[in-house]
Amino acid sequence: MSLPPKPASRPDKVSLWRYARLFRADILSAQPARLYRAWMAEFRTPFFRSYLMNQPELIKTVLKDRPDDFPKSDRIGEGLRPLLGNSVFLTNGDTWKRQRRIIDPAFEGGRLRETFPAMWEAAEAAAERLAPHAGQVIEIEAETSHAAADVIFRTLFSIPIEHHLAREVFEEFKTYQRSQPLLNLAAFVPLPRWMPRFFRRGTKASAARIRRLITALTKGRMEEIAAGTAPDDLATKIMTTADPVTGARFDTEEMVDQVAIFFLAGHETSASALAWTLYLLATHPDWQDRLAEEAQVLETCDFAVMSKLRLSRDVFREALRLYPPVPMMVRESTCPERFRDRDVKPGAQLVLSPWHLHRHERLWDNPDGFDPARWGTENGQKCQREAYIPFSAGARVCTGAGFAMVEGPLILSRILRDYRVAAVPGRVPVPVAHLTVRSERGIWLQLTRR
Ligand code: HEM
């Protein structure tokens, strides 16, 4: 069985200029192959240093043990700030802590059970949308993106993607993504901080349109809450939760910031993961058949069914290992550090790369192979604890991690219950990192009814 697609690495030594150019094309292929073996690597630029860290102990220090000393680098948000404002994804310190205290209860376990019917409806709708395409070759990212956007609107605002405001947000996001600079880019390329950043034409206008639409949804919900007619969904939960420390609630503006990030972080990532999972199954028909068999349990909407989708979870987890939707994260050091006998100065950019960590040759057995059974092995379990961070880790772990681990396997199984997917000869997807890890020219699959 051939290995799942992996982008070619660049030669070890290139000029800074060539590096920056490669970077503009794609951050994955801009990196040298040694990053799949190194514990730590240093990148020198004329203005600052960045360090890529693969050693599990170092990652633990930064993400879990001392997160307050390694805030999110604000370089990361440069391309996203017009859209996301003061959203929890970009804030640091006390503001971030207050926001998480209000948001986290909406995503905890018990709440997921209540959210489940909305996810189930979205999975049903996704399977129905595929029906006219049976017997055809289709681009599956467009379908998974549609499905994941539907999940967000149904769970957050109790409306399906067909609702005019939901549809407009979804369409406008596609325009925004085409126009905005790549996430992470500014964290690596040698631009000094004082240099003005230019957004591509249309980015700001597009962000303003999205925010207007989300504001309409949020204001409408404020009125429903005041009138006592609001549905009991995630938006209502978040908007009525008071911070246990200060007693404050989100005002409209701050809620709009959060809705924007839920939509962006919640749909792009899940869409990418689902599309890659379907491709991996198209190229591993034995696993696909096993999942289809397991999916027979999907009959009526009952949260208990999730405990029966074991293989589906293992496969989804393996896809998140090989194609982590968020390929890299960046933090900034605030005090002098000594990491692996190197002095790391305040202001240095620390890059944590799920992409490299998940394929690290000194940690994983068969690092580039697709093997969902690995999670039952000693090596797989050790690596899952120490070298697997598709949702990050520690205090700043993805708020939607539990949500995504229900949504992903559910939609996957629901599709495979009714359909078979097969790879299309000559159309091997090439992973590239844009906002999330996507395929350069889409992921094309042959769809047939089971
Ligand atoms: C497969 C799906 C998903 C993946 C792989 C994923 C991954 C991640 C990662 C790696 C981060 C940390 C980024 C960083 O620290 O730079 C993150 C943060 C975040 N994610 Fe997710 N995510 C997924 C789904 C979701 C969903 C469904 C939601 C919400 C509905 C969500 C909401 C968030 C939010 C709000 C943050 C910011 C947390 C903070 O900084 O405190 N994500 N996600």
Task: Draw up the topology in text.
Layout: H1 16-25, E1 40-44, E2 49-53, H2 56-65, H3 81-84, H4 93-103, H5 109-130, E3 137-139, H6 140-157, H7 164-179, H8 185-188, H9 203-227, H10 234-240, H11 252-282, H12 285-294, H13 310-322, E4 329-332, E5 337-339, E6 342-344, E7 349-352, H14 354-357, H15 378-386, H16 401-418, E8 419-423, E9 431-433, E10 437-439, E11 444-449
Parallel strand pairs: 2-7
Antiparallel strand pairs: 1-2, 3-11, 4-7, 5-6, 8-11, 9-10
Bound molecules: protoporphyrin IX containing FE (HEM).
Radius of gyration: 21 Å
- CATH architecture descriptor name: Orthogonal Bundle
The distinct ligands, each listed once, are:
protoporphyrin IX containing FE
Structural class: alpha+beta
Q: CATH superfamily, called what?
A: Cytochrome P450
The ordered H/E elements are: HEEHHHHEHHHHHHHHEEEEHHHEEEE
Query: Can you summarize the main beta sheet?
Result: 4 strands, mixed
Shape: globular
Average residue pLDDT:
89
**Which CATH top level class fits?**
Mainly Alpha
Percent strand: 5-15%
Number of strands: 11
Identify the strand order in the major beta sheet.
Answer: 1-2-7-4
